[in-house]
Amino acid sequence: MNSTLPDGPALTICIPTYNRGKRVHALVLFLKQNLLPLTKEVEIIVVNNCSTDKTREMIEPLTGDSITLVNRAEFLDTAELNMFCSLELCNGEFVWYHGDDDIPAIDTILSVIAMIRQDAADLYVFNSPVIDDEGVILSRHMANMRTSHLDVSGNSLLETAGFVFMLAGISNVIFRRKSANIETAWEANSIQPLYGHVCWFLACFGQLRSRIVNRPLVYYRNSEPSQQVAHFKKVAHHKNVGDHHFWGIGVALQLKWLVDRSVISASTLPRIFEGRRDGTRFKLLNEVIHKIYTQTIDSIVQNEERFCINQQTFNEVRNFLVSCDLFAYDLFEPIEKLNEIAMGQRSRQELESLKRNFERLLSLHSLDIYRNNWQGERSGYQIYRMACHWVAVRPEIEGGIINALSIIDLEEQAPLLLIDDDFETLVSRAAAHAKEYIPTPPPQASQSFAGLERLGQQHIDLMHRVAHEYAHSVQIHRQATLLGRKISRLFSYTIEKLVSFGRRLLAM
Question: Which residue stretches of 35-152 are H helix?
Answer without folding.
Answer: 55-59, 79-86, 106-118
